[in-house]
Structures are given as C-alpha cells and as structure tokens.
Design a protein that fits this description.
Helix content of chain A: over 70%
Helix content of chain C: over 70%
Distance between the termini of chain A: 52 Å
Order of helices and strands of chain C: HHHHHEEHHHHHHHHH
Structural class of chain A: mainly alpha
Strand order of the largest sheet of chain C: 1-2
Order of helices and strands of chain A: HHHHEEHHHHHHH
Number of helices of chain C: 14
Strand content of chain A: under 5%
Distance between the termini of chain C: 14 Å
Strand order of the largest sheet of chain A: 1-2
Chains: A mainly alpha (about 290), B alpha/beta (about 240), C mainly alpha (about 325)
Shape of chain C: globular
Oligomer: heterotrimer
Amino acid sequence: MGDTLLPQVIINGVTLGTNYVLMALGFTMIFGVLRIVNFAHGEFYMLGAFFVLTAIVKFQVSYFLAVVIAVISIGLLGFLAEEVIFRKFRDKELEGMIVALGLSILMQNLGLVAWGPYDLSIPPVFSGVLKIGSMFYPVERLMVVLLSFLLMAGFYLFLKKTKLGLAIQAIAQDTEIARVQGMRINRLYPLAFAIGTGLAAAAGSVIGPLFQLNPWMGIMPQVKAFIVVILGGIGSVPGAFLGGLILGVAESFVSTYASKAMADMLGFIIVIGILLFRPSGLFGHSHMTR
Amino acid sequence: MAVNQVTFSVRQGEIFGTIGPNGAGKTTLLNLISNMYVPNSGKILYRERNIVGYPPNAIAKSGLVRTFQSTVSYGESTVWENMMRAQLGYHFLGLWPEFLITRAVRERRKVQTEKAEALLQFLGLESLRDSQAKALPYGYQKLLGLAIALAGDPQLIMLDEPAAGLNHDERLHLMSAIQKINQNGVTVILVEHDMKVVMGLCHQILVLNYGQMIALGAPSDIQRNEEVIKAYLGEDPELA
Amino acid sequence: MIPQGKTYAILALSIFLFFIPILWPDEFYLNVIISTYLQIILAVSLNMIIKTGKLSIAHAAFMGIGGYTSALAVMRLGLPYLLALPLSGLMGACIAILVGRLLLKLQGVYFVLVTFAFGEVIRLFFVNLVEPFGGPTGIINIPPPKITVFPGTTFTILSKVSYYYLVLLVMLITLFLIQRIYQSSIGKAMDCTRETEHLAEFTGINTFQQKMFAFAAGGFFAGLAGSLFAHYYRYISPESFTFWESVNLIVINVVGGMGGITGPILGSIFLVPLPEFLRGFVEYQRVLYGLILILTLWFMPAGMLGVLNKILDWMKARKPRKEAST
C-alpha cells in the first residue's frame, strides 16, 4: 500500500504543478514587467475555458482549433485591457491593483450573465487509461500535462529567442534602463499583458476539459498562481516553473497524508514566510522593501 | 562595495563637504550615516555615542537631521502646513497624551506657530506661506527643505545635494542660507556634486572616488591635490 | 477643532438617528440600516489603517476573530455580553499587534499581498478546527446579548429595534474615538507617514509606531464589529469574513473617498443598501459593483467625498463674500 501510494502522490503533484506553472507564467510576466498585480488573471483563465466550450458546442470547431481561437482572442482582450484601462494607472501600483480587482468582479459576473451559474463541461477530447506498473493514469490527464509542457517550452523559446521576448525580459529587469535604451514602453506593455493573459487563457483551454466550468473557476488557479509567483520570485520564469512544481508536489503530499484544508493553508503560509524572510523568492530580485 | 574604509571626523560648528564624481558613493555615505542603510562594519560616533542601528526618528530627535534630494517636502501641503508638520515628530508627547489632547498638547500649539513663523522669516519664505509646496519654484522648495530640517533645532544637519538643479542665483541664495544657519551654531555636513558650492562654503572637504577616500582637508589643499584633479579630469574644468 | 456650527449639526444628526426605529419600525429597513452601521464601523476602522499608507485586505479576518471570541466567551466561558464585547475588540487588537510587528515592515503592494495571505490563513484556521470553532459550519445558535446594567435589571437584546440601539451606540462611540484620533497630532502624523514616509521618519515621527497603532486600533474596532455581527445574525462561520468581505471594505473606502471618516460613511451608505434594493437583478448588481469600482478610480479618484468637496468649493466660490465675523 505504501509503495504504490508514493509514486502516485508524486505524479499527482507534478500534474497539479504543471497547471500551476502555466497560470504562474502569465501572472509573473504581468507582475514582473508591468508591476500590476493582476487580480483578474483567473478570469482570463475562465474565459479561455468558456471560449473553447462555446467554440466547440456552438460553432462545431475542433478542440485544438478552439484552443487557438481562445488564446488569440483573449490575448487581444488583454491587449485592449492594458491599452484602455491599465494604461492610466501605469505609475500607480496600488490603484492599478484595485482596478484589476474591479475588472475581476466585472468579468466574473459578466461570465455569470453569459453562461449562468451551473457547471458546464467541455466534451472530453481523449479517452482511455494508461497503465504504468500498478498505477492508472487517464490519457486525458497525460495529454494535458504534455500540452502544458509544450506551451511552457514555447513560451521559453519566445522569451529567449525572439526580439520581443528579449525586450520584455529587459523591461522586467530594469524599466529605467530599458526606457533609456529606447524600447517603446507604450507598445511593449500591452503586448506583455496580452501574452500574460494569453497564457492564462491557454491554461484554461488546456485544463478546461478536466474540470467543470463555471464563472468562478478562475479564483483558485489565480490564488495558486500568486503563491507560485511569490515562491519562485516575481518576474522569474524558472522561478515560476520550479515554484509551480514544488507547490504542486507539496500540496499533493499534504493533501494525501494530512488533509486538503491543510494543503490549502500550506500555500498561504509559504507566501507569508517568503514575503517576510526571503522576499525575492527562489529566483527573483528584491524590490520588496524600500 | 559602495563605500569602503572611509574614516573622518567632523568638528562641531564647521561646514563639512563631501564631493566626488557621480557614483563615487557620496549619497550612499550620507545614507549610511543617517541610518537609512546599515553598514556591514564600522561605527558612527555622534557626541561620543555609536548610533549605528538607531531608528532614524530617534536620531532626528537627538539633533541629527538630514534632507533628501528627491522628496524635499510634503508636496501637497502648503508651506505653512509643512512647517507645522515638520515639528510634529519632535514635540510628540506619546500616543495617549496626544489622543486625550491634554493641556500640554494644546499649549504647545502656540510655541509651534511661533517657531514656524520664525523659520519662515529666517529663510525668507514668509510671503509664500499659503503656496502649495510642490508648486514653488525649485530654489524655494530647497529652502523649504532646509526649513523643515531646522524645525527641531538640530545640532547637525546633513544636506543631500542641496544645490542640485538650481540656477546661479538660486545657488547663491542657498549658499548664503547655509552660511547663516552655520553661523547660528549648526554643524553642517554637505554632500554635493557642484564644486563651486563646496569650495565656497566648506571648512573641511572629503573627496570620494569609487567608494574610497582619496583626500581629506581644507579647500585649498584639496584644490591642489593631484589625486583629486585626476578624478575630476573632464568633470569640472574650473577646478584646475 | 470642528467649528461650532458643524458640531451642532453632527449632534443633531446623532439625536435624529436615535429616533429612526420609532419613525420607521419596518424590520426590513432596520436590518439594512444595522448592516450599514456594522459596515461603517469596519470601513472607518480600515480607513485609519489606510491613513498610514497601508492597504490591508485582512480587515474582515479581524472581524471574524472578534466574532468567534465573542461567541465563545458567552457560550463556553459564560461571560456576560458587556465583557465579551470589549474582549472581542481586545483580541482583535492583540492579534494585530502580534502579526503587525512582521507584516507592517512590507511596503506597498507587498503589504497588500501578505495581508491577503494572512487573511486566508486565519479563515482556513477557523475552517480546519471543528473544536471549538465549528469548522466550516461555524458556530450556530449564538445567544442574543444579555446586558445587565444594575443587578436585577437584565435586558435581552432580541428585537431588531433593541439591536439597532446597541449597534448605533457602538458605532457612534467608534466614530467619535476615531475622529478624535484624526484631529489629534496622531492623525496628522499618520498623514505624514502615508504621504512621504521617509520625510516623516527623518523629522522625528516614529512611523512604525504610527502604523502599529493604526493597525492595532483597526483590529480593535473590527473585533467589536465582529462581536456585534455574531450576536446579531446568531451565527458565525468562515464564510462571514472572506477575502471578498475585506475587498468590499476597500471598495467602500475607494468609492466613498478616503479623506477622513466621512468618506467611508458615504461609501457604506451608498454601497450597503444597494444590493438590498436591487434584489431582483443579482448578477447585474455585481456587474454594476465592479463597474462602479473601476469608474470611481478612473473619474473620481478622491471618491464621493472628493466630489462632495468639489461641489462645496464651487458653491463657496459662487456665493458673494459676506462680511462676517468668525
């Protein structure tokens, strides 16, 4: 009993972790580059899932095409959101954060108006169960992990290999220097926001088939993203990756051997601990205190 | 290392200046001795007490006040309000008495009003008392910063690049204000980039470069010091 | 000090408030007003914390702490309500002092985030412990307050009308105390701390003490509100003080305006009854809520109070100057 349980716990943890990493990547990008605590991040995730649902059910589009449509359109939405709404609060971090909060409430309830409060589901894309040794692993889940890794790899390549990606990294490092070097903040900020929300939408689209959809489905992933980002370090991609996996596995362990409620508490205690004692997280730079 | 092995003494009643090229560590030095940063090693002796680690408000209350280059005053408030606010910390009698608004608290108001008036007169700001601080011409903002620093009757003030951004007339006005303050018995430590200000005012000068001390002495000695000339080559042709 | 005219106006208003249950004994309206009063206590005490430059999203958690303290004090320890009420406040203040030491060191957005995490930890703490807090279901059947003024005369605050007076009294005391703080040098020092912290610190203001005081006092009043809440609704659970309740308090401050106690009062009066009167359109009501928040930050960053002040200034400018002796 003890032998087979441990690997299962780890695998569950890694699966959970990859969910978290995807959300965290977008969130850390927005926080690291634009200094906005995007409280509406979970809502872009939610929209991703719902767009996929609508595309499949209403427009009979295939799943993969639906995902692409969802990611692009929500990326566009994010671009507009920064251009139109957040631009005004660029130098006012706290106000920007509260605006994001307002946006979050707005989006949740628009979602409620549009799709109702009851759980909906995306028709499953893959079926079957994989048997590895004495463990069972649904193929659907495996595909989600695979897709997530693909997205992460794609994002990583984007950051390191494209001009845009490098520019965004530069701004995250030091906005003043980037500005002096002539990078157009006005173009880059909305783009960075768009990519961040696109990633959230991608997470929602990819993970959507596994869970029930409702307007509040973004709240928990958002919270996890926030925990992972603090843990991994704000603006740090490897931090988001490592932090996500660590949180996923740690929660899996605590969930199995203690209780789910304890697992939830774990994340917040980690956040408090990090903010107080190692504010830069695992990999980030510290701009926490004066 | 931002500031390395710097040792000096400031004599009571003098004007002490610190100069050096950009990035030499002057502001860092000031931040260290005003306890904004904590040094890795070393002591700061103020009236024979090592003040490293003391909270800034305690240091201010013991007579050591500094100014800031960037945030000179409470921008949104008027000049008069700034003067009243500047005195708050020094006269604060403690949470409980302040909450009860005891008689001592009420009587103090007269003293504070008089002091505010006196300081404004001293620095020539009395006609501007109802102007909003951030709307003042830059030269007057700096003078307001000086007035705020003097609100607690300090024995030693530390000025962070007070002449930065000032035009010729404003600079002269500032320099005479600093001299007046010094003549009233206040010791001054000055961090400056502008050579003219430092040469014109200071009794003793410390020159920094790359965080190291490269010279310490009277203005005439500094002027002739080869190391200093080398460090400033191309920075200020008037030095040679 | 408040000029004479204003003092009388406020006194008159307060006296008027005592007559409301007599003029409008409608249970529904009284319920709305009581909820509003509770929010006012919470919103104004949060305003004090914000006044030192700290935006706390943990305020509802302190309300929860007060509520559980009060319920347990009465139900388990058998304490009279007149003791349980201040005890709730003290518990809120004590916890605030304990955690404030660490939390208040963080700046800006990071302080907000750590209070968010802290609020959740508190909530989950209560969710996890079935004994004595009742876990996810909380504590039910909390008895109504029994107040013994003289031995032999015990009032049981059961009806909405009697509860109205209890809450009104606590609210007025809260407002009086906080206004007093704002008018004293403490209030001015708080403003300095918020606006330009290092200038305040370097002119002798102990900014940490200011922040701690605001945080502890805020925790105290939130605790009081929690006690009133618990004995009014006769139950308390972790659902009563989630992140959203804390956010609501911030929204009240933002929409009402954060200058002084008038702002959160206006904000509460506007936002608390709103959902009650939009009962038929629940989803739209929350859409409106989010919209109001965004639009306020966009167009009226000083909130309703800012708008009110502008109107008053405009009115003063239009009136011809009278030769009056002040």
